[in-house]
């Protein structure tokens, strides 16, 4: 399912216009991204949690030479599915 398919499905189930649904989806994504970028956590009960995590600096291997390279610390977004979502997907 791509973005447009999702908009179509939401619009059909909520009986709203596709344009309004697209704006709502864009706003939802923007708010989640902004909150996580600030270091906040977005919890959607039954669905999951979006949060910012950090990865420590480490030494890796250059894929061509095999020599060591330094990989700097970084921050990444993380999604952890909720229990209800896990159970739904489990079977």
UniProtKB/TrEMBL annotation:
Entry keyword annotation includes Magnesium: no
GO biological process: chromosome condensation
SUPFAM superfamilies: IHF-like DNA-binding proteins (SSF47729)
GO molecular function, a single term: structural constituent of chromatin
UniProt KW keywords: DNA condensation, DNA-binding
Record bears the keyword Cell membrane: no
Classification via InterPro entries: Hist_DNA-bd (IPR000119), IHF-like_DNA-bd_dom_sf (IPR010992)
Family affiliation: Belongs to the bacterial histone-like protein family.
The name this protein goes by in its record: DNA-binding protein
């Amino acid at each position: 399912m791509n973005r447009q398919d999702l908009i179509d499905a939401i619009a059909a189930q909520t009986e709203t216009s596709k344009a309004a649904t697209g704006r709502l989806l864009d706003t939802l994504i923007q708010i989640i991204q902004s909150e996580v970028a600030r270091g906040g956590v977005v919890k959607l009960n039954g669905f999951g949690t979006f949060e910012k995590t950090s990865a420590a600096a480490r030494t890796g291997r250059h894929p061509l030479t095999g020599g060591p390279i330094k990989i700097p610390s970084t921050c990444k977004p993380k999604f952890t599915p909720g229990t209800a979502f896990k159970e739904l997907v489990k079977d």
